Amino acid sequence: LFFFFQSGNSFHVFDQGQFAKEVLPKYFKHNNMASFVRQLNMYGFRKVVHIEQGGLVKPEKDDTEFQHPYFIRGQEHLLENIKRKVTSVSSIKNEDIKVRQDNVTKLLTDIQVMKGKQESMDSKLMAMK
Q1: Range of 115's domain?
Q2: Environment class of residue 36 by beta-carbon count within 10 Å: exposed (0-12), middle (13-18) or buried (19+)?
Q3: Is 59 helix (H, G, I), strand (E, B) or coil?
Q4: Which of 7, 71, 80, 102 lies 20 to 30 angstroms, CA to CA, from 13?
Q5: Do 68 and 22 fall within a single domain?
Q6: What is the edge-to-edge ordering of all strands in the sheet holding 64-67?
């Protein structure tokens, strides 16, 4: 058994190797567990870390649990709220763009100053030779 709904608000993958080999290819174009987890994260699922594990110790068994606020047994109408997170260019504030442009302008100016100093040093070195 690979998938298991314990309390109805999460699911477990008990054997990641077997799950990746047998289940993932049936529903995805890959059999990579890391890619599956990345996809879950993009849709807002989070790995459940139990307090007794302290978040630092890996569980002894190959059991990974995931949950999402809208992934609840018997609440199929909530599934439509599970959507892929998208970062769009329109979400970037104009002030952020202005700050970045100012940084680029300053960097270009600094480079020009350094080039000028390098050329001056080169000509002094040639005169010394």
Answers
A1: 86-128
A2: buried
A3: coil
A4: 80
A5: yes
A6: 3-4, 10-13, 64-67, 46-47
- Pair (61, 102) in one structural domain: no
The domain total for the chain is: 2
pLDDT in tens, the chain (129 residues): 456 566 788 888 888 888 999 999 999 899 999 999 999 999 999 988 876 655 555 555 677 889 999 998 888 999 999 999 876 666 666 666 666 777 788 888 888 889 989 989 989 989 998
Show the tokens assigned to 118. Answer: 């390098």
For residue 8, what are the contacts with CB-CB under 8 A and spacing of at least 6? 72, 73, 74
Separation between Cα atoms, residue 112 and residue 38, nearest integer Å: 43
Q: Are residues 76 and 97 in the same domain?
A: no
CATH code of the domain containing 18? 1.10.10.10
Residue entry with tokens 């104009």: 94
31: CB partners within 8 A, 6+ apart: 20, 21, 24, 25
